[in-house]
Amino acid sequence: MGRVVFGVALGCAVVTCAIAAVLVGRRARSRRKWRRAVEVLREFEEGCVTSIGRLRQVVDAMAVEMHAGLASDGGSKLKMLLSFIDSLPNGNEIGTYYALDLGGTNFRVLRVQLGGRGSMILSRQVECRPIPQELMNGTSEGLFHFIAVTLKQFVEQQEDDDSEKKPDEKKVLGFTFSFPVRQMSVSSGILIKWTKGFSVEDAVGKDVARCLEEAMTKAGLNMRVAALVNDTVGTLALGHYYDEDTVAAVIFGTGTNACYVERTDAIIKCQGLLTNSGGMVVNMEWGNFWSSHLPRTSYDIALDEESPNCNDQGFEKMISGMYLGDIARRVLYRMAQESDIFGDGAYNLSMCFILRTPLMAAMHEDDSPDLREVGRILTESLQIPDVSLKARRLVVRVCDVVTRRAARLAAAGIVGILKKIGRDGSGGVASGRTKGRPRRTVVAIEGGLYANYSMFREYLNEAVAEILGEEVAQNVVIRVTEDGSGIGAALLAATYSSNR
Ligand code: GLC
């Protein structure tokens, strides 16, 4: 009997020890895995360092590349494309103009009534339409036909409501086409390549303004393109319309890019073409900027390699709305592979672009103590339920690293432009001051990433001030314009419609 009792007791003790060993082992393994997840974050953070020293190197590299791109075609990854815009709207524009804004997943048609000095913009009507996915990857005829028909419907609807309509008069359009275009004049230009997920291959090498005009004629729309502009150029036009100290414009949206007013004598590559001795707007296509000083991680390299435009748009892939969410997703996926912090749903993180930047912004900006919004987005949008609070905190930190790096590099890009035009305070009296007083410099900014993502905005503004120093930063105004890419094109159509 005694032996039986002893045997049972021994058996229980062995089982208890085994359970305890399993539990201890499991806890140790889970701690190890958790530590691995934190290490993944640390390594990523280290790879993304944007110290002030590094930002200054990026500023210098941007200014150097700008010089090189202005000196010769192909002299830099920055294309530095001439816009032929040598006079910007100033408020005197008058009349009714149309604009078409194509550059992302939606396109917009606008009608703007300008009242001349004093009355400024009297009215504007806007309509926004998504571009069907098949047209983004189809033929140029299909894409322009769709746009022309939509524009025609919009014009007819506007004219129905207009008591002073003049149906036979040729209408004037400003066409914002936000892709790299080699302009031949203000109103014509050849598409160099697509960016941002478009691939209507037969449009490359064609004059996109003529493609649109042909489609409009076929659709029975009596309209001509008076200005073909990049979205940065439209934004600069609207910025300048409101404030004549505006010298540059930057877009932070699906893609990113900048333009600015350059002295004509600094545009060495096209001297023969330039008649005006003043300034001309240059579309930098800075999305393609590259420098060895950019902090690039294995996640950026993988994103680039898996993209349809590998080795292209390197700066854009670290900064713009199309990519930020996917950089964060890649880091989270690595964490999921090396730990179990996301449980069974982690597999979903293997899907490219499942985490879109607006969702990432919403998680980053969740200030509830239990990170409820992070939990909701992980559950509802990524199908990863029951993520612990500790792990949700890691998610927020990943978003922070991605966005902080993007915003600080963008700030360095802006200061690079200011340096190139002598407005960064380093050029002394001759370049940045008038009669001993520092000149005011306004940079117009547009795009959802800046307008809707407050952490991105704060990091960017803070870094501009940090790089410039307090005194110089006081004279640099970063001003958000609204709908510049559309209204700006209508303003430029007004400025240039009499010149053709
Ligand atoms: C992409 C385009 C560029 C555009 C920018 C912002 O970088 O190449 O032309 O300005 O996106 O929309």
Automatic annotation (TrEMBL):
It is an enzyme of class 2 (transferase). Pathway: Carbohydrate metabolism; hexose metabolism; Carbohydrate degradation; glycolysis; D-glyceraldehyde 3-phosphate and glycerone phosphate from D-glucose: step 1/4. SUPFAM superfamilies: Actin-like ATPase domain. One of its GO terms (cellular component) is mitochondrion. Keywords: ATP-binding, Glycolysis, Kinase, Nucleotide-binding, Transferase. Transmembrane segments: none annotated. GO terms for biological process: glycolytic process; hexose metabolic process; intracellular glucose homeostasis; response to glucose. The keyword Kinase applies. PANTHER family: HEXOKINASE, HEXOKINASE-4. This is Phosphotransferase.
